[in-house]
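[09:14] KT: can someone run the structure on this one? pasting the chain below
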Amino acid sequence: MNAIRIFITGGTFDKEYDEITGRLFFKTSHLDEMLKLGRCERPLQTETLMMVDSLEMGDTERLKIVTACQEAVEDHLVITHGTDTMTNTAKTIAAAGINKTIVITGAMIPYKFGSSDGLFNLASAIAYSDLLSPGVYIAMNGRYFKWDKVKKDKALGRFVST
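[09:31] RB: done, structure tokens below
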């Protein structure tokens, strides 16, 4: 069994809803709760790098993610990320030439909404990170995609091969 580290960056995974203002916001990551709910018994290391909406993520944040991937002692990494720009982050990580299995995942609906795809995507990403060869992948909708062979189809509300 491979050692896996999960990097948390925010995104829809970790958003909460403010009933008074009607805005989505970040408080804390829901990852530990999700792993407990999924009865994950596998030892994992988690680390919060940031809590941002991926639309607000820039070069500084992406460099922080790349550096964390490079410095991680684990060779199998999962990154939780907002779906709007996860392909941009995947491209940046791939360009760094890191010889590890890196799987980026997210959610189309916030975990706290109860009908989220986040738990399923997280579990898939963990499994894929254990099985795939080194490279950068995106895991969404029960599938994995090479970083450069996927896009978010906003009309369908899912990720598709390119």
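[09:33] KT: thanks! The longest helix spans residues 118-131.
[09:34] RB: yep, looked fine to me
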